[in-house]
Amino acid sequence: MGTGTRTRPRTPSRVVEAWAAQSVFTRAPEGARFGFQYSANPYRGCAHACRYCYARTTHTYLGLQPGRDFETHLFVKVGVGRRARAELRRIPQDASIAIGTATDPYQPLEGRHRVTRTLIEALAESGHPFTITTKSPLVLRDLDLLVPCARRQQVVVHISLIALDRALLSWLEPGAPPPAARLKTIAALSQAGVPVTLFLAPILPALTDQPPAMAALLQAARAAGAQAVMAGPGRLEEPVREYLVEALTVHRPELVASYRRWFCTPGGAPPLAWRQQVLAQAQASATEVGLSWGGPKPRPAPPAAQLRFPFA
Question: If you write DSSP's letter for every residue of 45-92 in order, what string do you get?
């Protein structure tokens, strides 16, 4: 996430602060199997307010709470365009960069601040391969940038959607766009020629792991135009687990004891047998509906095909 300096809050209801980050890109740990070498998150905190979000713990580094503060006390990184250009000159050309690994780069703040857009402009110039992970239709605003990148096979967009059940997501992801909006986003990206992967993570026990519901989700994503699926079981470390349990107490009280038991391990991993079962189930359903497993992967753009944009 980088370190930086903070300025005064802008609003009392949803606090938004400028964040002068010392770096834009974070290198992935050596040997980690993330599928990318660097990540970038234009914002800290996220108004989508997903109860299960592992990134909530990062707010504790700022002396804030991982619960409500994460979704109401937000940070906007400033000067990203110029800083990204400078850093990209030092990053190997074939290194893949993931945008949105901790917070959604197209959360509502992006509509005003356009930090993600300046980052995409820098990547289009540099030719580095990159992915975007988002729940938001706002990504369609940037089709003018993404379509040329897609023609060079430089970008893949991951649309995050873990269920079709709107009632479930209304309390599990209370600030996120509804499932129908995300499926329409998949369709619009696909029709524009931008490769789309369904990001099915985290899979949550007794909430989103039922085989019929998962199969219906994968079928809907495939029908909308997704080419592949990336899936992963949920991990709930203690502060995130308890924030989710708070919601379970209201909406699914019968699961409270089970969640505290399932996710009590170091790192918050659920039982291995369940993880293996649910991934096998997801992969089988993907094969049945014609979704590939894990791909496609972006590639570096040839130097002659790189684009130029004004400095942001």
Answer: S-TT--TT-GGGGGGGGGT--TTHHHHHEEEEE-SHHHHHHHHHTTS-
pLDDT number for residue 265: 84
| pLDDT over 90, % of the chain | 79
DSSP for residue 43 = E
- Let me know how long the chain is: 312
Q: What is the DSSP letter of 266?
A: G
If one counts every other C-beta atom within 10 angstroms of the C-beta of residue 14, the result is: 15
Q: What is the b/e burial string over 264-279, where b = at least 16 CB atoms within 10 angstroms of the residue's CB?
A: eeeebbbeeeebeebe
**Binning pLDDT at 50, 70 and 90, where does residue 306 land?**
low
3-state helix, strand, coil in the chain (%, to 5): 45, 15, 40
Tell whether the model's pLDDT for residue 12 goes beyond 80.
no
- Name the residue among 164, 191, 188, 190 with its Cα closest to residue 178: 164
DSSP string, 216-235: HHHHHHHHHT--EEEEEE--
> What is the rounded distance in angstroms from the CA atom of residue 40 to the CA atom of residue 85?
13
